[in-house]
Amino acid sequence: MDYDQAKQRAQAIVGQMTAEEKMTQLLYDSPAIERLGIHEYNWWNEACHGVARAGVATVFPQSIGMAATFDPPLVHEVADAISTEGRAKYNRSVSYGDYGIFKGLTYWAPNINIFRDPRWGRGQETCGEDPFLTSEIAKAYVAGIQGDGEFFKATACAKHFAAHSGPEGKRHVFNALVSPKDMAETYLPAFEKCVESGVAGVMGAYNRTNGEPCCASPALMKILRQQWGFKGYFVSDCGAINDIFEGHHYVESRTEAAACALKAGCELNCGDAYRSLIEAYEEDLITEEEITAAAVRLYTIRVMLGEFEADRPYADIPFSALSCKAHKALNLRAAEETLVLLQNKNSFLPLDKTAPRKIAVVGPNAMSVTALEGNYYGHADEYVTVADGVRRLFANAEITVADGSRIHQQPNSRWDGFYDLTSEGLAAAQDADLTVLCLGLDRNVEGEDLGYANEFTDFGDRKTLALPACQMDLADRVCDVCENVVVVVMCGSCVDLGDKVRAHAKAIIHAWYPGALGGLAVARALAGEFSPAGKLPITFYRADAEIPDMENYDMTNRTYRFYQGEPLYPFGYGLSYTSFAYGDFRVLSQNEKKIVCTVAVSNTGEMDGKEKVQCYAKYTDSRTSTPNLQLCAVTPVFLKKGETETVTFEIDRFWLKAVLADGSRVEPDGGIRLYVGGGQPSDDACSVELKKV
Predict the structure, then answer these.
(1) Residue 410: Cβ-neighbour burial (10 angstroms; 0-12, 13-18, 19+)
(2) 10 Å Cβ neighbour count for 481?
(3) Residue (of 614, 605, 604) closest to 686 by Cα position
(4) d(C-alpha 57, C-alpha 584), whole Å
(5) How many angstroms separate the CA atoms of 11 and 299, rounded?
């Protein structure tokens, strides 16, 4: 439905309401207006990587893992499946008169904050550290969620606007100080691209940015509404409007906080602060025109979802779509593509799955469902842990499973010492021909405002890039007793396993939080059922790397674009069981808006595989401060062994512009060389110098 048409219908609906009724509709748990035949509607729903918190649904890999696919078309498929399951739930819920929380169609995802600091606990919800990759993954997600029909299938909401990425423990009081250059170059582009792609909602952050609370920031709203022309709805993060006076002390009362947020352009309150709007209205802090404008924006979205149609759109999506066979197959495929092969000495992997051998699956994440789920998770009707997956794939093996340690700081025993985890883990590894060592974290030590701090976690943010000490001890000792060790790491960020483990391990797979079937994906990778193709969406630093304080939002020495050190593994890195060669890189055409390029990609190895073609821009002779490199195109291509394909991709010149100190984007004053390959440019990478337009 055309937005202007929907707005006219929304105006007609809202025009029948009293001022008091309109104000009630600005709360996330909007009550019914029975005299108008309007049902209650709860705006709060989550679908970061599957419909969350609402019963059974397909639990896809966590967002950071989906970013590691470097495959926007795949992300679109996943998001389309998520909105299908959302509609299936909604259709059945409303038929029973259930309009409760997590039952609506307005999903508060994707999280497109830049993962600028690998210690941030919520980085797992993001699309990584790069604004271009974040934009491409987010646009694909938004399109998949919202669909391309006459009505929205569901709606997406880009969050958290803006400059939000820790620290978790101070998010209700923190003021992020960000230069205009960093805002325009790093923190805002993904939001701008989501707005261009038609995202229905934007959520404000808890923090202040440059002194203004993000949910009541005239500066941010000017960018969003006036500069970018955003027509959708703006919602506060949950409780963020209370923070305006309780945490930020920006105003002196909740009534004033509600008034300044509404006047700035925040239409919807997740929380209860907007219950004070009636006092603000009575005190002339807000006008009925402002209340009406907010209600109309919200009802425009509800109209576009088809809520008021006699024949509700997408009503034919059945309940059986939930966790159906097709979605499980997609989930497994997605999990496989998230896996990043970091190390594979002498092509140790893949393994012969038919060979008789003793395999030990050891580590705190060997049998962990929690490590499959990540955070903002749904409830799957089937989970396959790594131990389960190895049992399924290696039928001729004798398999032993042991925890070996806890995730962090808990006693290394169960039931007061009757079950010693370390010795059992070592015993299993020592007797094995091969140990699959399953390490990492889970949402209990990295995540959203966990409410506690200790020597490892600071309210969900990590204090170190190394594994917890109990796991490092287990890993070191397993390497002492078993020759053949394959490490599988499940966590939401980078982790340094230490020199000893890296030197000893035959292979290392980074699996993120891979979703309900993640353990099967890992086992299939070990068995060579497919060739790993995931790439790192963040830079992996060494545990002792000097990275800036988390409270410092300056991008200097952060991410591959500005880091001056030597990373442990670079952004865009990921090995394969096959090999690829590039040649005949050409610029076919270019104008002031886009560049069209082609490159020949060949699978020169012994296995079919998928390559993630990456194009980077490098600036030469520029007097303007520019990134080290800038990813500007990603294109996945599947090639059978021996096959060559000419890949065509487009580059939006937006990503090649230089950003000045005032935040303006201009043509760079020097040259630009484009590099194409399966990762960041190497000395022998295909490249071409762009001509000035």
Answers:
(1) middle
(2) 17
(3) 614
(4) 45
(5) 8
* Three-state secondary structure of 574-622: CECCCCEEEEEEEEEEECCCEEEEEEEEEECCCCCEEEEEEEEEEEECC
Half-sphere exposure of 334 (CA within 13 A, CB side): 34
Q: What is the pLDDT of residues 471-515, one digit of tens each?
A: 999 999 999 999 999 999 999 999 999 999 999 999 999 999 999
**Looking at the chain, how many residues does it have?**
693
Element at 476 (helix H, strand E): helix 469-481
Query: From the CB of residue 624, how many other CB atoms can be counted at a distance below 10 Å?
Result: 15
Query: Is 339 in contact with 532 (CB distance < 8 Å)?
Result: yes
How far is the C-alpha of 502 from the C-alpha of 479, rounded, in Å?
10
Given a contact cutoff of 8 angstroms between Cβ atoms, the answer to whether 564 and 658 are in contact is: no
Annotate 153-167 with DSSP letters as a single string. SSB-EEEEESS----
Give the C-alpha separation, 98 to 623, whole Å.
61
CA angle at 538 for the pair 533 and 541, rounded to the nearest 5°: 115
What is the distance between the alpha carbons of residues 103 and 127, in angstroms, rounded to a whole number?
25
Strand partners for 687: 675
Q: What is the pLDDT of residue 692?
A: 79
The total of other beta-carbon atoms located within 10 Å of residue 483's CB is 11
CA–CA dist 453, 460 (Å, integer): 8
Cα–Cα dist 238/266, whole Å: 13
Question: Which domains are present in the chain?
Answer: 3-321 (3.20.20.300), 335-562 (3.40.50.1700), 580-689 (2.60.40.10)
Token output for 47: 């679908």
580-590 and 594-603 beta bridge pairing: antiparallel
Q: Are strands 398-402 and 157-161 parallel, antiparallel or unpaired?
A: unpaired
Query: CA 631, 636, 640 angle in degrees (round to 5)?
Result: 140
Instruction: Judge contact between 548 and 556, C-beta under 8 A.
Output: yes
- The catalytic site residues sit at 237
DSSP symbols for 318-333 = -GGGTT-HHHHHHHHH
| CA atoms of 242 and 269, how far apart (whole Å) | 10
Strand-pairing partners, residue 469, are none
Rg (CA), the chain: 25
> Who contacts 217 (Cβ-Cβ below 8 Å, separation ≥6)?
204, 208, 209, 264
The DSSP secondary structure of 379-432, one letter per residue, reads B-S----HHHHHHHH-TTSEEEEE--S-SSSS-SEEGGGTEEHHHHHHHHHHT-
Cα(542)–Cα(561) distance, integer angstroms: 17
The dihedrals phi and psi of 95, each to the nearest 5 degrees, come to -65, -25
pLDDT in tens, 635-680: 999 999 999 999 999 999 999 999 999 999 999 988 999 999 999 9
Comparing CA positions, the residue from 482, 597, 469 lying closest to residue 543 is: 469
Q: What are phi and psi of 361, to 5 degrees?
A: -110, 110
In angstroms, the CA 173 to CA 207 distance is: 6
Is residue 75 classed exposed, middle or buried when 0-12, 13-18 and 19+ CB atoms within 10 A define those classes? Answer: buried
Task: Round to whole Å and give the CA distance between 5 and 9.
Answer: 7
Question: In angstroms, rounded to a whole number, what is the distance separating the alpha carbons of residues 162 and 669?
Answer: 29
Take residue 119 and report the two structure tokens written for it.
Answer: 């210690």
0.85 exceeded by the pTM?
Answer: yes
DSSP 551: T
For strands 594-603 and 630-639, give the pairing: unpaired
pLDDT in tens, 376-417: 999 999 999 999 999 999 999 999 999 999 998 755 555 555
Helix-helix angle 288-304:254-264, to 10 degrees: 60
Q: What confidence category does residue 421 fall into, taking pLDDT thresholds of 50, 70 and 90? A: confident
